[in-house]
User: Fold this.
Amino acid sequence: MALTTGSPRGDGHRRLIVMAGVAALAFLVLLSRLYHLQVLRGEEFKGKAEENFVKELRVLADRGLVLDRNRKVLVDSRPSYDVVLIPYFCGKACDDVVGRLSALLSLTFDEEQRVREHLRTARGLVRFRPFTVKVDISRDELDVVEANRIELSGAVDVLPTPHRSYRHGVWASHLLGYMNEVGPDELERMNAELAKAGGDAQPYQPRDFVGRRGLERRFERELRGVDGTQRVVVDARGNAKRDSELIPEDQRFEPSYPGNNLVLSLDWRLQEFAEKTFPATAGSVLAMDARTGFLLALVDRPAVDPNKLAGRITRAELAEIRADPLQPELFRAIQQHYHPGSTFKVVTAIAALEEGALKPGGSVFCPGRYTLGGHTWRCDKETGHGHVDLEHALGASCDVFFYALGDRMGTDKIARWGAALGLGKPTGLDLPGEIPGVMPDEAWHDARLPGGHQHGMSLNISIGQGDVNVTPLQQLVLYGALATGKVWRPQAVLRVEDPKGEVVREFAPEVRSTLPVKPETRDAVMKGLLAAVNQPFGTAYGLRSREYVMAGKTGTAQVVKLGAKRLKAWQIDYFHRDHAWFVAFAPAEDPEIVVVVLNEHSGFGASNAAPTAAAVIRKWLELQEEDARAREDARRPSAEPPAPVPAPSAPVPPGRPEKPARAAAQAAPGGSRGA
Amino acid sequence: MALDLSGLASLGAPRQRSIARFPWHLALFVLAISGLGLWNLASAARGSHVDIWITQGTWMAVGLGVALAVSLVDYRLFRQGAWIFYGVVVVLLLLVLWKGRVIMGARRWLSFGPVNFQPSELAKIAVILALARWFSSDRESDPRRGPRGLAGLVVPGAIVLVPAVLVQKQPDLGTALITVAVGATMILFAGVRWKTLVVLATAVVLAAGAVWPHLKPYQRKRVETFLNPEGDVLGAGYHATQSMIAVGSGQGFGKGWGQGTQTLLSFLPEQHTDFIFSVWAEEHGFAGALLLLGLYFALVGSGVTIAMNARDRFGQFVAVGATALVFWHAFVNMGMVTGVMPVVGVTLPLMSYGGTSVLVVLAVLAMLANVGTKRFAN
Assistant:
């Protein structure tokens, strides 16, 4: 043990020096690592540490309003009270809590099962996340939940979330569109598009609602606001802390900015009138300002309530809608093919006059049928019209007259004029999903039919049957062109305004082309359209008015080819019945409004479509006069108290505030969704 | 265990001139680190466990008393008691495996009445004393004896591996590794043939391959996480990632005492025990980390100096073992916190919270001081 018995000191010293060297090297490694982390990458890690504790809460922006031309609110946002359950906070008592909730909110069996299923399967972090038990509970239910807060434990909460409110349900809902949750793939695609478009648009986040269809989709970017941010300090468990001094004061809150408002060209007084007047189960009523091409009313049936489609619909209800043979999701005005029937006769007439197949004043003898190559085409009037000229033929809707013109001209000449009047291509309404319709020529038939084009087909086409297909909106534009000589691009939005009401973008009337016909031709056709309403032989003579002169054309579009004998509507299965058309404009001398009415499967146009059109036209002209009087009264300085001015908008349903219910949820804690 | 050592200490008597020869610089470094450790714990424990720095302070006071006793005893008493102590520790380790208390999935604790302690901590001291005793025997200290071959490593190898394997069985990989590292350092200091080293190194690599499938899943996961910490940020890589964020975000001069957000907002589990260095580095930055690194290096340097000047072979080996213990603890712990080592449960001497750890480290450093006190007279 004495040192003399130890190993040579030299050896031990050498090893100790080596070991000290190794230790120094090891500390040098630590030193350089610390330099690397703290000095070289310090900024980066500082950022990461901040990401750790700064939680950004979104302050959802209010989506823009949709207003009618008189600034009546059609679509806004309101708070939706959603009941949520956080499974972690009730633990073993969850079953009991769900039972109570179920009774208080009268949940259906399926709804309750869905919650219980979630409680069974939720694991880990999911147990901390609020699970939606029921969306959009009523005020009464809200009171009941609040009154029973203690028994329901802290696990149950009611979150007010801004929710799109379509104040008039199904009315004009195809035009307005709806909103629902963005899908994961879609989210990626939309954000990629936003990034490509540049600008400072915020990316979408999971569970965001986006506009679907109609204006909600088309004007998604304008309607969408800019979300704000609230930054709070959280600890590692996600609990918010009060130590907000960790975040500089100017970064704690960034306000949200509401989206822009859309001002539509629709006049809701007219829309409401048309909705109530139109008797159809399925069909469209379209009204357009003949002087600008802006739509005034757009009824389209059937439709689904957009309030339901925004996440308030059960699978069963959705399946029912999808299976409905009436196809309520179809926007008939721009997405459905119809035979124009007799309303197409104006095209045949124009073609014949312009191509010289019909001399001015020329006439045809109608014996009640037309025979060609061993086949017989029936006239609408079995006993025949006798000798008819163009005025009489259009007014009384004689088929034989137009068979003869079709026979003389052939398919191609009719098709050329149909195309010149805008058929076979979309009208250019600024909405997604418009179909072009079909204006077939001979090559079209050759390409599609086994026997190719046959001359007899031009006879079918001449009266709007065969393979001619149009949308109701195309009819509107076509008759608008006859009325004014201008082929309008139909539009539904007058302008986009910012939340303060400043105009961001204004849409001007847009003429796509002028009616390419000689004035005499237009006069001749106009005479026929006047005759249909104003001459005793006219198909719509019953609708003539003393106050104004209306011009129009009835149509009955065959849906299926029936036997030789005509049957009454009630004798035929609904889906085999004919469609009723009426297209009209007024006042004939200086047209202000064009109206199309399509009543699906209702039989004759004169009896089932024309009355609605006439009523809508009369209503519009009355409204114009009312407004003019109101303006007059407002301008005239009067000593006497001003006469009660007619309200600029239709009566508001009682109990609903006329002022837009700007999401009251904004300030509420639940109103902002976690980033 | 404190009782054991103080029992021994009472047997000796202070010698003349020992006060003058006492390595005061060593005591200075120890007190400096202990002070910083307490100050740091007071920051780390704000909020959740407010009073742990007081508990730690109490343990340090007790530890300093023990250290005083240990440093004043004639260390030749340790040599006499080395085998007995080693035997008692091995028995305690077996006892732990048989009827220890299970805390957090590991069977590490023995209870004697109100006192709970971990015999695995004692294993480190037992190995240091036993190896020093073995290498200071007459046969082993024969000056004509050259570096050891395989045969010469059988006994010292067994001295290290028996407690290490028992500790690993608990399981406590961190302590087992430190025990092996300290033992290996002492054996290397005694001298091993180069050829034998190469053979052993090869064997270790092969053994590692063979052991890998038998590791616990969490242990395997830790090694995998070390090799690729970004692969699993929220799972097993959470510790590694969060501690690197804490250290890095301290930047040059730190966020200030009590201002560490990673600490304050509990992003670091185990922040007051194994990950205490990340708290220090976050709040005091590169400058503070450098200071602490310097103190540990100074401690190691003092240890090496004491070993060089030791009066006899036993004292020299004890000094080497004690220095190795401090070095390996400090290096593995700080390496783990900064992401250059895998996450293993190793404390940072005098900084990490924990009574047993404080007592053992202070006792070991006291043995070092003891050896230093009886150094060669110039």
About this structure: The two ends of chain B are 36 Å apart (CA to CA). The first strand of chain B starts at residue 101 and ends at 103. Chain B touches chain A through 55 residues (CB under 8 Å). The beta strands of chain B are 101-103, 106-112, 115-117.
